[in-house]
Structure formats: C-alpha cells, structure tokens
Amino acid sequence: MKPSVPNAAVLYRRLRPALAVTVVAMGAVMLTSAPASAVSRPAIVSVAQDQLGNTARNHESPMGSGCNYYTGYFRSWKPATGCPSGDGVQWRNSDWCADFAKYVWRNAGVPYAEVPEGSGGILTGWASSFKDYGVAHGTWRTRASGYLPQPGDAVVFDWDQSGDIDHVGIVTSANSSTVYTIEGNSGDRIKANSYSRSNADIVGYSAPVGAAEVQGTASVYGVLADGRLTYTAIDAATGQRTHGAVTSTATLGFTPKAMATLNFNTILVTEDSAEGRLYQIDVITNRDSLVFSPPVLLGTGYTHELLAYDGNTHLFGIAGGVLRRYTINATKPALSNISAGELIGGGFTLKTLTATASNWLLGTTQSGQLISYRINGVESFTRYQLRDTTWQVFDYLMSPGGGVYYGHRPEGSMHRYLDANPHDGNGADVAGLGTVDAGGWTQTLLSTQPATVS
Q1: Does 140 map to a domain?
Q2: Residue 296 shares a structural domain with residue 442
Q3: For residues 52 and 72, what is the distance between their CA atoms, to the nearest angstrom?
Q4: Over the stretch 145-192, which tens digit does the pLDDT of each residue have?
Q5: What region holds the Peptidase C51 domain (predicted)?
Q6: End-to-end Cα separation, the chain, in angstroms
Q7: Do both 189 and 307 map to the same domain?
Q8: What is the four-CA torsion angle of 384, 390, 394, 398, rounded to 10 degrees?
Q9: Are residues 324 and 422 in the same domain?
Q10: What is the pLDDT of residues 375-395, one digit of tens each?
C-alpha cells in the first residue's frame, strides 16, 4: 500500500489474497539458547533491512506495474503478464505489503509464518491477516492500549479509519513518541518510514509468537590486576550470570594492555611495552577453573590501546587515535594468518571499543559520547553519534551481538543495555536494562566473544 497517499480513491482495500541455536561451551560449560519456538526480534529486523537494501527486488518492475518478487514467492496463481523473473521466482502482479511482511517473518523463523494459506495458515496476502494472527495467538495489541511496539512486530494501518485494514509493515524500533518501520508496497517499493505513535491510521500491532528481545549467552573474559584470567557467562535475555566468574591459577606473565576475544577458547592480548608484543591465549577449560596454555608470542608492533574483533575475520585496533583493520583467517592464528593492518582513518580518540557486528564498531569518549561506526573499507567509514554525554562512566564496553551492550564501571559494577536497532545510527532506542552485578567485577581488562547473541 502507499502510505504517502492516504486517499480513498487510490487505497487498496484488498491485499492480495526455529531459530534455535545451541552453544556448546568448549572446556565443559554447556550453554543453550531459548527454546526452538523462540524467534529473535533482531533477526526479524535484520531480514527486513536486508530486503530494503536488496536493489534487485526492493521495488516493482516495471515501477507502478504491481509486479513484485514477494507475491511471486508465495502465490503462484496471481497474474504474471508483463512481470519479470528474478532470484528463481516468477514475479507476479498484486498488492504486496502483506506478502513482504510474511516473507520477513517466515525467513526470520517466526512460528506459523511458514504455513501456506492454502494449508490452514493464518497469514495470507491480506494485511488484515496479521491482525488475525495476533488475535489467534494472543499477541494483538491496539494502538489505543498504549503498547510500546517492539522490533519485529507487525503494524497494521487503516488509512481512512473505515474499519478495514489497508496496509501492514514491520516495526524496526520505537520510542515514546515515534514508531519506525520497513514496509513493502510503500510507493511501489520497500521503504523505511516513521509515524507518530498516536497516528490514528495505526490500528495496532501483532507480536510474533515466541518473540524474544535477544537470545544467547555472553562469554566474557577478563584479566585481574595480578595477571590471572577470568571467565564469566551471562544470559543475554535475563542479564543473569549463568557461570563464574572462574579464575585461573596461572598468570599471563606479562603486563597486558588490550585484549580481544576471537572465539570461545582463543584470546588475543597485547603487552604494555614499547615493542607492542601480541600474544595468543588458548583456553583449555573454563568449567571449575580457567586453565590456559602458555601465551604464544605472535609478533611485535601491536601498540594499540584498544582492540575489538567483529566475529567475521576482522580485528580492529586503535593506536594514537588511528584505527586499523586486520584480517584473521584462522581460528588459532599464527602471525602469517594476520594481514597487514589496513588504515581506516584517524580521529578515533576513544576510551572504549567493541564490535557490534561485521564491520560495525561502538565506542565511548572521555566526554561521554556513545558513537557507532560503519566501516565501509580502506580509509572509509560512517560515524553515528548515538548519545552526547553520560557514557563516560564506563571504562569498558562490550557487545556479544544482538544489540546487547555491557558497560563496566571502575568500582566493579556491570550494566546492560539493549539497542533495539543497533545499526540505524539512532540512539533513541538504546534502553538501560539494569545491572548484571552491583560490584565484584574487579578485572583490569574485559572482552566478550562476538556474535553469540541475536
């Protein structure tokens, strides 16, 4: 549907008729995610964003013809005259906002979204079927109820308040005043839109069955002042510690400066020395205590004050305000597995640094700014200032993925936050979720394994 033209003469009344991950903690801790019926809200938003950016099919072809990929994906009985084929699908002519929303839910693993409409599925080519879904499964909320829409919800519209639902979109985030969406068939294409939450065109919201804000476990390694290593596991959904902290008997044998966790049992640590020695730490177990092999010297020249690994081969380091990116092509890298550093840019005068996804960084400044960076390539990045102040209280910032952030304060407290859409360049949807612990985190360095939470 076309929300920019809410005129009855052009409104379409008829809209053409699990994810479960098990994490095995090496060394003996078994950690599992939410049950198979759960679906991650960030995963739903991610599918919608991927389709928004897919230039091969994020619009009708020809424009204004009604021919679209998403109707063809689900409904082979719709007319195809004049429509192209692409991505293995014969495109077909129909209003398609509901087909797009169903595609997003289905490909994110939303329960019951995979059931075809001809086989008893509730979701069809009608936008009203998304309200039917919520009513049937007890997840329907009206706009008038004051419900705060969540990422991944379906939002349905009635453009002229006639009582007939005209359009549906996917919520990407919301705050006290505004709801942000990605919608199919919005001006003949997929578009990102925003609305006042009090907009009378909004009828209400259906949440996906089993929707979870986040699921997964944050695996946090740390170094104590005496050089011993620690390991702690945190349930990302609840903020509760599920294991540890467990502590090593052995010490590193050198003064560490920066660290980055590559995977569950591999850590990179730099030495606080003029030579800038880089060591690899192999963790053998972290069940009842933390045992690791003697540190392996990989090379010198790594004088970075901050390190972060994005979970997708990229190690980032900041030295003297200059950011470089290294590519690592092995889970247990030798120096030959680490590329020469690519220059990303200068001016990175950050106090903390973490990676939130592949080629996405997050950091804070001494003055309290919270800043997100999209790394586009060599000497190319996009900067987003999410917050102007107050984040100076943290000496370490960590993200295991999924928009979950952990901030450590010098007195030993650990705090958690959720960014409903961590890559929208907007800090309005960063919400505090309280403390993991009010004290006890006495580590002098902290790092979390990337991409374990979604």
Answers
A1: yes
A2: yes
A3: 17
A4: 988 898 999 999 999 999 999 999 999 998 889 999 999 999 999 999
A5: 93-185
A6: 31
A7: no
A8: -30
A9: yes
A10: 999 999 999 999 999 999 999
